[in-house]
Amino acid sequence: MAGRLVIEGLACGRAGRLVVPPLTLALAPGEAVLVTGENGAGKSTLLRTLAGLLPPLAGAVRVEGFAVASGEPARSASEIAHYLGHRNALKGGRTAGAELGFWQGYLGGRALSPQEALEAVGLPGAAPFRCHDLSAGQARRAALARLLVAHRPLWLLDEPTTALDAKAQDDFARLCRLHLAEGGLILAATHQPIDLGPDARTLRLEPPAPSTAADLESSIESDETWEAIG
Fold this sequence. Notes:
Blueprint: E1 4-14, E2 17-27, E3 32-37, H1 43-50, E4 58-64, E5 81-84, H2 96-107, H3 114-120, H4 136-149, E6 154-158, H5 166-181, E7 185-189, E8 201-205, H6 216-221
Parallel strand pairs: 3-7, 3-8, 5-6, 6-7
Antiparallel strand pairs: 1-2, 1-4
Helix pairs in contact: 2-4, 3-4
């Protein structure tokens, strides 16, 4: 897997309010960034912008050297990304197996079967159970299994270990390290430590001083660019 994610001067916000000042960083295959910061610092906003769910206020996101399932070059990060929000986004009336089967067909790029993915996250017998009958921890693991049923190199993870016990957290970190070893890329927003290996970088976001998009121009002119640190 060869490719690169390049973020250049990306400013993120909601409803015209600047939340994340211009940010520049790049990720190559096998690299991970842990995004940390207080509530309201913009961790979720950054990930949602990268996933294409929110429009950027400024800057650009480029993907280089990646292809979509059809073989055509990828044009946006959303085309190569799994986005896992802090909510599980499971359809309660579907069985866990059917839910993963739906996402596999929707996302394309087949990887593990739904049963194999459930086994990988420690839910070998969950396939016939409806999602609304799963415990909070089981539902989170079922949501994490979505990462495994369709191949996408970029994982955008928002508090991925929510509701997981210590063993499940360790198991998930192991899956992440395997993804990185295979050339994947990970940006994970988290309040809890996740062992993504010794080379994982940390990007700490702080609540910005500008309060509206009108302040964006002065922020850019001052070259207020945040970069990931090792």
